[in-house]
Automatic annotation (TrEMBL):
Protein name: HTH gntR-type domain-containing protein
PROSITE patterns: HTH_GNTR
Organism listed in the record: Eggerthia catenaformis OT 569 = DSM 20559
Statement: the UniProt record of this protein carries the keyword Acyltransferase: no
Keyword Ribonucleoprotein: no
């Protein structure tokens, strides 16, 4: 794993929070495996910092349910269980359905153009079969819908959830022809937004999330069987 200098870690936010973000990314991107031990001293040496911010970040990870602290043994990676993933998707369906409805009520030409621009890029990179680029654009597409609600509160709630779901969605995009079908679903959602058809847009976005949920559920179920 690449090391991080003190400057890189502290340039945004508190040191403990930055370490938390780095470790969380590693867990969610499966750079750490279920059951791996996170050693406080080893991490402090890697980041060239004191143990205090590392300890703070490990406590944050425990609150998020991503690690487990066992007395006299240490801190161990838990990662996600299939039920955790399902819960996140269920919450996301409710909130994104609300978001797309509000977006249609409040959207203006500027926000509509932003969503369309992202879709056009998705179309371009789908033809190139660039999985990583499509993953990033998928996140951006949904964030543009959040922005179109012009609700800072809803945007923050959705972004917190979407951070976790976006990591797991990477696995669904790798499934056979999922990039192509996902593009069609995003186009249908965009068309419904442009037509100001709230009922259709809500139905389409829930269906889109359902399909991703099923693929991600299969991925994590297969991982559980291998343990």
């Amino acid at each position: 794993m690449p090391s991080h200098s003190l400057f890189e870690v502290t340039k945004h936010g508190s040191l403990g929070n930055q370490i938390f973000n780095i470790l969380r990314d590693r867990i969610l991107n499966e750079e750490y495996n279920h059951g791996d031990k996170l050693n406080e001293l080893t991490l402090a040496k890697e980041f060239n910092i004191s143990r205090t911010p590392v300890r703070e970040s490990l406590k944050q990870l425990e609150l998020e349910g991503l690690v487990e602290s066992i007395p006299n043994k240490g801190v161990f990676v838990k990662g996600f269980k299939p039920r955790d993933i399902d819960d996140m998707f269920e919450v996301r369906k409710i909130l994104e359905s609300l978001a797309v409805g509000l977006a249609i009520d409040r959207i203006n030409d500027i926000y509509l153009a932003k969503i369309k621009d992202v879709y056009d890029l998705m179309e371009f990179y789908t033809k190139k079969k660039d999985n990583e680029k499509i993953h990033d654009l998928n996140i951006l597409y949904h964030e543009m819908i959040y922005q179109a609600t012009q609700s800072s509160y809803l945007m923050q709630v959705l972004k917190d959830i979407h951070y976790y779901v976006s990591v797991t969605t990477r696995h669904s995009l790798k499934q056979h022809q999922r990039m192509e079908t996902s593009l069609k679903e995003h186009k249908a959602i965009l068309d419904a937004i442009m037509d100001r058809d709230k009922d259709l847009a809500k139905s389409l976005i829930v269906s889109h999330i359902n399909k991703s949920q099923m693929l991600v559920r299969k991925y994590y179920a297969s991982k559980e069987k291998k343990r």
